[in-house]
């Protein structure tokens, strides 16, 4: 069914674990055929992975009739926790027992799973809800790992060596090295994941800010490889469904912006593929900016890649949102609504100082209005602005951190912590 013009189509509400158990009565599940329980399980999984895990825990029959995600949670993309994010370090956001809080960007649900790798690993970025991490102990190698925070599954990749860093940059100015290994900086990494479920092989592609080539390796490789082609990435790039999207630098005189897409190798070529088989970036859309000073951001919303068109003085100008799929077809039509979603630009995810862009539901962020673009004042950092894409109006508020309740607790909201506006941070 086609969506109205200018609307961002949203999928129907999925079945949850609670609704599948008939208001808490467990006996109907025990009498259901196994194939029917399996079908219900897949419907539950379409909503959220944790609902699926709770559904499996209802009884022995539901467990035996559905697939256990543990052991498959990385190589089977159906079990990726795509709409979950680990909150940045901040006052009362995490517990003293070391457990980190994760937020569901659609439902607003918080969970506190035990993530042992965080004791000696640094989170570089999130890939489909999985955590790309690097070991930080100087007396060990700097191995790259991909962790599923809810099942504990880990996929291990080789460490990145110093000679490879020289091939990327010609120096180590963007990274730091020790004992012949290169350590990546959180927030300066964008990664995509490709899996061959039949072979149980996963491949990670890494784009480093300002690097001219991409790194890629599989779980069966002993070293990382470099793409044969070179390019010039921009800071705003995202990964989605195994692909990486970015902007191509344009001449100062140009009023057109080219959007690039990097495809992964075919699944059958993941293992043992050479650098020459890695597809080069391709131009998928050209956007007529109309001005040389425009700034652009990319964000994923309801499985759509959106382009946010703004300007240097972001809190005084109009903004617009476009679907990349529309731009590919040559339709330059701004959206007038994104449903019950808001777009957060420049969020400090996973404690990173480099901002990332997110889409959130009003259930997760009830203090934000629908159809809003939320961003921080890029000049003074004093205001948090909300831009309504339908009316073209701004609403601003001060981000004040020194307001405390009578109990001495920080009263800053979750959104303040996510933007790094609250100074009550703990290490």
UniProtKB/TrEMBL annotation:
Occurrences of domain KIB1-4 beta-propeller (ranges): 112-353
InterPro entries (UniProt xref): KIB1-4_b-propeller
PANTHER family: DUF1618 DOMAIN-CONTAINING PROTEIN, F-BOX DOMAIN CONTAINING PROTEIN-LIKE-RELATED
Protein name: KIB1-4 beta-propeller domain-containing protein
Taxonomic source organism: Hordeum vulgare subsp. vulgare
């Amino acid at each position: 069914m086609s969506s109205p013009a200018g609307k961002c189509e949203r999928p129907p509400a999925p079945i949850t674990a609670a609704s599948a158990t008939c208001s808490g009565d467990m006996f109907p599940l025990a009498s259901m055929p196994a194939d029917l329980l399996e079908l219900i399980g897949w419907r539950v999984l379409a909503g959220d992975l944790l609902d699926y895990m709770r559904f499996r825990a209802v009884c022995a029959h539901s467990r035996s009739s559905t697939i256990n995600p543990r052991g498959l949670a990385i190589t089977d993309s159906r079990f990726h926790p795509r709409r979950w994010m680990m909150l940045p370090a901040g006052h009362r956001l995490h517990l003293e027992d070391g457990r980190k809080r994760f937020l569901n960007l659609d439902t607003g649900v918080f969970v506190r799973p035990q993530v042992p790798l965080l004791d000696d690993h640094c989170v570089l970025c999130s890939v489909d809800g999985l955590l790309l991490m690097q070991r930080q102990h100087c007396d060990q190698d700097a191995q790259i790992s991909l962790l599923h925070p809810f099942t504990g599954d880990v996929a291990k990749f080789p460490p990145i060596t110093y000679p490879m860093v020289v091939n990327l940059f010609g120096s180590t100015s963007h990274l730091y090295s020790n004992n012949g290994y290169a350590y990546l900086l959180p927030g300066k990494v964008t990664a995509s994941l490709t899996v061959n479920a039949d072979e149980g092989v996963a491949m990670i592609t890494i784009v480093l800010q300002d690097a001219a080539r991409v790194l890629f390796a599989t779980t069966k490789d002993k070293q990382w490889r470099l793409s044969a082609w070179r390019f010039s990435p921009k800071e705003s790039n995202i990964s989605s469904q195994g692909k990486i999207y970015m902007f191509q630098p344009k001449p100062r005189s140009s009023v057109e912006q080219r959007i690039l897409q990097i495809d992964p190798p075919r699944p059958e070529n993941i293992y043992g593929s050479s650098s020459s088989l890695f597809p080069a970036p391709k131009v998928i859309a050209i956007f007529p900016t109309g001005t040389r000073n425009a700034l652009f951001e990319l964000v994923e919303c309801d499985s759509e890649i959106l382009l946010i068109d703004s300007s240097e003085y972001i809190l005084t100008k109009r903004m617009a949102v476009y679907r990349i799929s529309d731009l590919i077809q040559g339709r330059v039509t701004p959206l007038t609504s994104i449903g019950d979603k808001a777009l957060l630009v420049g969020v400090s995810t996973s404690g990173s100082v480099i901002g990332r862009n997110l889409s959130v539901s009003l259930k997760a962020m009830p203090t934000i209005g629908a159809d809003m673009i939320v961003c921080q004042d890029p000049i003074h950092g004093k205001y948090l602005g909300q831009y309504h894409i339908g009316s073209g109006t701004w609403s601003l508020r001060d981000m004040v951190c020194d307001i405390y309740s009578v109990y001495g607790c920080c009263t800053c909201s979750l959104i303040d912590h996510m933007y790094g506006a609250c100074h009550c941070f703990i290490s």
